[in-house]
User: Which sequence fits this backbone?
């Protein structure tokens, strides 16, 4: 039987949900052809990227084996996409041994996502960009705590027990609150006074969470204060040097650790694919995620520049947007194959859920003109459900 080969490139949130959506649409066969469903990703596991702050504070695993996520008939291919020849329908990728391999496809979904923004060299501190940097963050504060136990100078001990998080987006808020919780817990375990732990969150804007309402910003700031996080508005970190963090307002903050959480940028690999991209390096697609000038190629998630055809609003780089795009894509691919009208992209409902350390969180949404805020343990439960659902640990 002839095969129909669908390759999904990138197994982040968009990619795993795209594999599921295609599989759900067809099962093992599509119009008399056997479906060959492949997921290409350089990692031997799905990384639960939204939990990247976890290895910075503890040892909880944030990877899931492919077999646990992929439908039985889908295969993981370990490799990194390098180039797409859309005219010949061939994807070129580098396999785990560093060899270039050519793979023919019928339908290709590009979902290679984004990467965390790095700091310029020489600025000190550690940017939370991946597992390795997260572990370095944990090692740094753990080492500082050991040193604080033996330190006789109160001033130096205070510095060792102080951390700063530069960048107060959702990742910054979640990282700062988890750090405060973990450092306090460890301080108590080591016989240090948990009240001596200081975590500063540096916010370049005049309030937190500009995506939401003023009321939600204030609530977040209150909750962060309860977690032991002090927020500094209109304040940027400039450089950390010799245990001193220079701030944009001219102050110098003695710190044992600086963590940079500066947001996401489109995956730079996309520029090498040979497909049309925006100035900032995102793939240009139509309202049905079809990549311009590349028949049979679709792009979703953080690596695609997607605009709502009704509102003209561009989708953000968030997991809550990537997943519905992937779910809609299954229907779009089916419609394109049978020549019917494909569903078009639609913006998701306004709403965020932010974890603020174990058992705490804020969920915010705006509906019918109402500003709805849920806080505390219920919000944390919602957040945990969302984390699990996103990585298909809940159906
Ligand atoms: C710490 C942190 C917290 C976050 N919190 C939230 C949150 O609370 N809510 C929210 O909505 N969003 C959050 N985000 C944003 C969210 O993680 C992204 O929007 C989401 O991951 C986008 O999914 P994606 O599948 O498009 O890309 P990604 O998750 O980036 O996945 C891309 C995949 O492609 C693979 N890949 C990369 N290059 C190649 C290549 N050349 N060839 C093949 N495969 C490749 C990668 O290995 C990865 O598996 C957070 C991000 C971070 C870093």
Assistant:
């Amino acid at each position: 039987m002839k095969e129909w080969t669908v390759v999904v490139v990138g197994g982040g949130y968009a990619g795993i949900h795209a594999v599921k959506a295609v599989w759900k649409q067809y099962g093992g066969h599509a119009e008399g052809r056997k479906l060959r469903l492949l997921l290409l990703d350089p990692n031997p596991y799905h990384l639960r990227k939204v939990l990247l702050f976890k290895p910075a504070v503890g040892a909880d695993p944030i990877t899931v084996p492919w077999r646990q996520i992929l439908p039985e008939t889908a295969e993981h291919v370990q490799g990194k996409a390098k180039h797409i020849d859309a005219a010949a329908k061939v994807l070129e990728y580098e396999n785990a041994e560093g060899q270039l391999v050519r793979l023919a496809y019928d339908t290709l979904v590009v979902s290679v996502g984004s990467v965390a923004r790095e700091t310029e060299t020489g600025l000190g501190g550690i940017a939370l960009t991946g597992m390795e940097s997260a572990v370095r963050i944990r090692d740094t504060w753990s080492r500082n705590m050991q040193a604080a136990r033996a330190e006789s100078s109160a001033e130096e001990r205070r510095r060792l027990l102080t951390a700063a998080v530069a960048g107060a987006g959702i990742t910054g808020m979640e990282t700062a609150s988890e750090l405060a919780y973990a450092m306090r817990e460890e301080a108590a375990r080591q016989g240090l006074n948990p009240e001596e732990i200081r975590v500063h969150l540096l916010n370049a804007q005049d309030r937190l969470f500009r995506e939401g309402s003023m009321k939600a910003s204030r609530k977040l700031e209150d909750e962060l204060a309860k977690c032991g996080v002090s927020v500094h508005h209109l304040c940027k970190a400039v450089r950390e040097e010799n245990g001193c963090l220079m701030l944009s307002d001219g102050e110098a903050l003695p710190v044992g650790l600086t963590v940079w959480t500066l947001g996401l940028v489109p995956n730079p690999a996309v520029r090498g694919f040979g497909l049309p991209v925006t100035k900032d390096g995102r793939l240009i697609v139509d309202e049905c995620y079809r990549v311009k000038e590349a028949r049979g190629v679709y792009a979703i998630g953080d690596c695609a520049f997607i605009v709502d055809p009704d509102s003209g609003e561009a989708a953000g780089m968030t997991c809550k947007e990537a997943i519905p795009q992937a779910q809609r894509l299954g229907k779009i691919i089916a419609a394109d194959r049978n020549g019917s009208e494909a569903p078009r992209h639609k913006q998701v409902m306004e709403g965020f859920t932010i974890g603020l350390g174990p058992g705490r969180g804020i969920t915010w949404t705006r509906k019918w003109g109402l500003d709805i805020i849920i806080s505390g343990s219920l919000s944390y439960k919602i957040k945990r459900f969302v984390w699990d659902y996103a990585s298909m640990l809940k159906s």
Remarks:
- Residues 261 and 286 are 31 Å apart (CA to CA).
- The radius of gyration is 23 Å.
- The chain has two domains: 3-116+265-348, 126-262.
- The chain is about 30% helix and 30% strand.
